[in-house]
Design a protein that fits this description.
5-stranded mixed beta sheet, 155 residues
């Protein structure tokens, strides 16, 4: 049995999802989102991401974490903010001694839906099939659960 923490980092709203993998059987443990206030200073927002994710890790004691790889936006400022959020999230994992595996967005979609070109709605529909009874906290939490599932499938 392995407990996996999936992460979808973002400065505005970081999604997280925790699943249990027993062979090919998956089960949902928890999921949520960490939203930061857009007008708060950058240092406060990053500290909030780190602090709240550290609490999630303490609560659920995952064996490892999985995170979506960084992608480059057309807007360099957006890319920089995403990278800073990822840094806070990865630091929270590192501080707890978690190994973090990174997955490309296309490989996550392929692992969950069967095609790397899947839409968000398709991913959310498959989550209900793969994790029966799951109540997803929002789109970012759904993406984080998808990352955890991809990691469990060796994606």
């Amino acid at each position: 049995m392995t407990i996996i923490l999936g992460l979808d980092p973002s400065l505005s709203c970081t999604g997280w999802g925790v699943i249990r993998a027993e062979g090919s059987r998956l089960s949902h443990i928890a999921n949520g989102q960490i939203a930061t206030h857009a007008k708060a200073p950058m240092a406060e927002r990053l500290a909030q991401l780190h602090r709240e994710l550290a609490a999630v890790i303490a609560d659920h004691a995952p064996d490892r974490a999985a995170c979506e790889e960084v992608f480059v936006n057309k807007n360099p400022q957006s890319t920089l903010k995403l990278a800073q959020a990822r840094g806070a999230v990865l630091a929270a994992c590192g501080a707890r001694g978690l190994t973090v595996r990174e997955h490309a967005a296309r490989s996550v979609k392929k692992a969950v839906v069967g095609t790397g070109a899947a839409e968000k709605e398709q991913i959310q529909a498959m989550l209900k099939v793969l994790l029966p009874g799951v109540a997803v906290a929002g789109a970012d939490a759904a993406d984080a659960l998808a990352v955890a599932i991809a990691d469990a499938h060796g994606g």
